[in-house]
Amino acid sequence: MDLVVVLGLCLSCLLLLSLWKQSHGGGKLPPGPTPFPILGNVLQLDFKDLSKSLTNLSKVYGPVFTVYLGMKPTVVVHGYEAVKEALVDLGHELSGRSRFLVTAKLNKGFGVIFSNGKRWTETRRFSLMTLRNFGMGKRSIEERVQEEAHCLVEELRKTNASPCDPTFILGCAPCNVICSVIFHNRFDYKDEEFLKLMESLNENVRILSSPWLQVYNNFPALLDYFPGIHKTLLKNADYIKNFIMEKVKEHQKLLDVNNPRDFIDCFLIKMEQENNLEFTLESLVIAVSDLFGAGTETTSTTLRYSLLLLLKHPEVAARVQEEIERVIGRHRSPCMQDRSRMPYTDAVIHEIQRFIDLLPTNLPHAVTRDVKFRNYFIPKGTDIITSLTSVLHDEKAFPNPKVFDPGHFLDESGNFKKSDYFMPFSAGKRMCVGEGLARMELFLFLTSILQNFKLQSLVEPKDLDITAVVNGFVSVPPSYQLCFIPI
């Protein structure tokens, strides 16, 4: 009797699998591992390091293949040529954003990151224009970053060369820059409200990168009916959005249409001047939340990883400091004009971003209309994962890609060398809105720190672990301590 039951279950599963694959157009999509009913390929993937799992599958199925994350097919694009073709050549057709991520649920289809169609086009265009033109004839963004770099250095001095975990301080600096752009004010590093904001942002990045959230992302029903860490994510997001709404209300009371002070003012003026359904209070709050979160955590995590790599490679830090001393000196603050005269420092920052591979699988895209891609038919609405790891760690472009080597971005004469494979901000129509600001912050914050401090590790450099502790949504560096020794 038991044998009959087992055989019956096996046949039922095979029948369900056959019907399911047919209903999802399996024959039209790129090849991939055979999925299980309902679960798809979830059990065949390591969500602690999804990027590695996808790389292994690419060795079997090639640069374009299909995995089922739950019952929904996802096309994976791997390798520079395929990724470029998807993000740039088919930038419009693949410019959609997946609607099944927990973050999409949070943002309800609004904002800069997870919106689609006309709403995304108009919100992104407005955000880009506002960020590029910011300053309103008063202070440029560079001046704001320089001012915050000075505050960062002063805060590091307060550590008195004692061992410290730099996570919080390195998060405050980029957060204050984006606060200045959005809210027209910065916060003191000891401000309780600021501390709560930073805590919420840090916790949400850890949650977004956790394996369990990857599972929740692929089974949306779990979000509503089961407890889990996603509840904490929602709670933190609500706190941030409520904080932003209070700031918006303050701006409404003091709004001067002839003298906009920041992003919120510009958005409110847009709302008053145009009867546009895409520009509402709800879309304003979520757009600000997107800029606030993305503008803080990505740069903060990169800075934290940067100092860890420089501790691991003290010879690199010393050479950067020699270049700072020669080009900038000790008596003025670094500025963006210095970068063109500092090829080694520029190469180091590029190599940091390449090596750490901050967003290994990028943010998932979606197909906006039926499209033919490399002789495969991909129907409208299909999710697309583009592996940035496969580009940033390509062996043809970067010999020994697993090794941290600034020489990857230097020519034989020691001049800075650009690479088409450098895609930490993605590429095409969905590339990062804040790329210019992030690159400015990384250069000015790092040079300001190294201009004023020697980095001292608490352990021998060879004993430092630089392996990401979480490699899901974001590559998060391990915790560490160091001493900032004044020069």
TrEMBL record:
Any one GO biological process: xenobiotic metabolic process
Known EC number: 1.14.14.1
Origin superkingdom: Eukaryota
Enzyme class: oxidoreductase
Membrane-topology annotation of the record: Peripheral membrane protein
Pfam entry (one): p450
Catalytic reaction list: an organic molecule + reduced [NADPH--hemoprotein reductase] + O2 = an alcohol + oxidized [NADPH--hemoprotein reductase] + H2O + H(+)
GO MF terms held by the record: heme binding; iron ion binding; oxidoreductase activity, acting on paired donors, with incorporation or reduction of molecular oxygen, reduced flavin or flavoprotein as one donor, and incorporation of one atom of oxygen
Positions with a binding annotation for heme: C432
Gene3D superfamilies (UniProt xref): Cytochrome P450
Subcellular location, record wording: Endoplasmic reticulum membrane; Microsome membrane
Family statement drawn from the similarity comment of this UniProt entry: Belongs to the cytochrome P450 family.
Full protein name: Cytochrome P450
Organism: Oryctolagus cuniculus
